[in-house]
Fold each of these.
Amino acid sequence: MIIDQLDTPLSGTSLKPTPAGSAYTDAEIFRREQAEIFEKMWNAVLRVESLASPGQWRTVTVGREEIIVVRTRKAGIKAYLNVCRHRGMRVCTTAEGRSKTLQCGYHAWTYALEGELVAAPNLTSMPDVDRGEYGLKTVHVREWLGYVWVCVTGSAGSPAQSAADGAAGGASPGPSAPPSFEETVMAEVSTRFGEVQSLQNYGVEGLRVGETRRYEVAANWKLIIENFMECYHCATIHPELTEVIPEFAEGWASQAKDEIHGASFGAQVQGFTVDGSAGVAALPAIAPEQDRKYYAITVRPQVFINTVPDHVIFHRMYPISASKTIVECDWLFLPEVIEQRMDISRSVELFHRVNLQDFEACEQTQPNMSSRAYEEGGALVPSEHHIAEFHQWWADRIGS
Ligand code: FES
Ligand SMILES: [Fe+2]
């Protein structure tokens, strides 16, 4: 048992406990997190705009599975486990590509973009082999906020089965059905943002990627979430951010308050940029109360969304091991900002620095998770108490 009453204050103090250090280092716990959290929940994996034309595909990792995400000719975006049905080789062996079919490089089994097996050496002499049955295994897909979200739960369907599910109005109920997107992803957004419409005001779906940065962080994914959820560290490690948002120097993150809280720009600040200078034009549909404000939400298990008046910063996390996590961060702007090559460098630089500062802190913490000094874990101060709810959720999911 790693967890004992995570939401109960440590006796006689205003502190709450954290999980024990082993929760951040143990390979068996990490395996359970992969199985019970990342492989059972919806994960945002890539921007829809990155698969613009039929035949374009990318490979992504979710939990312990590698997935092909492809734009088909007839069926929009689909996703498959990247496992050849013949003898198991990876069908796509690079990060991205464009092709008319998906052909395995081992014995040349060839799959349509829609997943069915369409050709294989000597296949015509094996008429008993059902090409639908031996198609690539499909993965559940949703598009929302301009991202492709996937869930590998079940993922045992052949293309023929998933077509039947689609005709019935969605994935079939039962063990292979993914959790309701509305009751998980969208509900998280409305819990933390008031209502989904408040986020829709930013028009995230229609924005374009101005910049993507990829960070390899030598830290457990939970340290990164915990860091993102609190601002107790802001005064210490984020000089540029607290200059733009002075209230962060008091240590209360916008996620720490009970009400939906947008953090205000400083009086002299013109925009959410590294030096507080003006950004680009505000997104047209934001509400008056969203102007000159910063909001941050965590969509468990692997998305962080930050909104400011003129852009949206969207993080996706991919845990690789108990002590290594890849984080991809997109800076999203209005299409005309990208098309007219407006200067977004000062906007990108602000949160890029925040990212580097945060990830360095996480990396300096990770090695000490296995110290005897942290065998029983650490402590959460009152402005971090909301993290206890995350810890309890985590413990419930992995059955600790
Ligand atoms: S393993 Fe793919 S064709 Fe044989
Ligand atoms: Fe931070």
Amino acid sequence: MILVTGATGTTGSALVDTLLARGLPVTAVTRDPRRVTPRPGLTVTTSIGPADALYLLSPAGPAIPEHDLTTLRAAIDAGIRRVVKLSAIGTPSRPAAAEELGAWHQPGEEAVRTSGLEWTILRPTTFATNSLVWAEDIRAGRPITNIFGDGAQGIVDPADIAEVAAEALTTAGHHGRTYTLTGPELLTVPDQVAQLGEALGRQLTTVDVEPRREHFPPEIADVALAGAHLVRRGGNAVVTDDAERVLGRKPGTYRAWAEANRARF
Ligand SMILES: NC(=O)c1ccc[n+]([C@@H]2O[C@H](COP(=O)([O-])OP(=O)(O)OC[C@H]3O[C@@H](n4cnc5c(N)ncnc54)[C@H](OP(=O)(O)O)[C@@H]3O)[C@@H](O)[C@H]2O)c1
């Protein structure tokens, strides 16, 4: 049995689909079981209980350390032996100041590494699904706000993160590994928007805007602003072959994600 936290979210829902498609029993953890559609092989719970392995996901924000530590403690108490933690690219291995980029996931990573469980840490870069926030502007015919300038990123498809997680949760050889997960190529926001426009059959434009606190919800503004400036100066222009080494194939392109997700824009 694999326990999936964040099962209604971006990577968690893809992971549930992946595990069920492999015929593996899954328990989805959610605060609201009514949000999970019943399926053969799937059980739903609101709390951590006995299982073979845990996908540890905490919702983005400053509460990540507390959520990670509470969930991990419950998993150890329940006798779970293996954990795969979703972290983020650039998370430092040393303690970080609270407002520092990378501070959200560092305590959870450290707790996982010292838990005594079999562990794998996944550090994905920016998700392809983040571009769904452009949908409203696209529908309204407005230019897409670009706070990242010409900073490029190795945009990753969350379905590939889920497949790597499924491998680490269910097969041998991933204990003690930290995988930095990216897509196959570096793309700027204008690159992404051009590919999305081709997928949608529309001419889309961007407008370059200096990132400001007001662009983000107040509780994440410090970290998000630091992240935006990092991307702008080219600090997240990273492509790795970690996903390819685990999956035995190239990770998906942003173009393929855009074509498969046309209906969501
Ligand atoms: N987006 C990116 O580009 C990116 C890049 C690198 C790393 N990450 C990391 O990915 C993780 C997930 O981010 P996401 O934005 O894509 O989230 P998400 O996985 O779409 O959704 C968050 C999930 O957390 C669950 N949850 C449990 N307690 C919650 C609470 N108190 N408040 C809100 N949700 C709660 C929700 O489940 P229920 O509502 O069913 O309970 C939901 O399924 C974060 O740790 C983030 O740092 C994201």
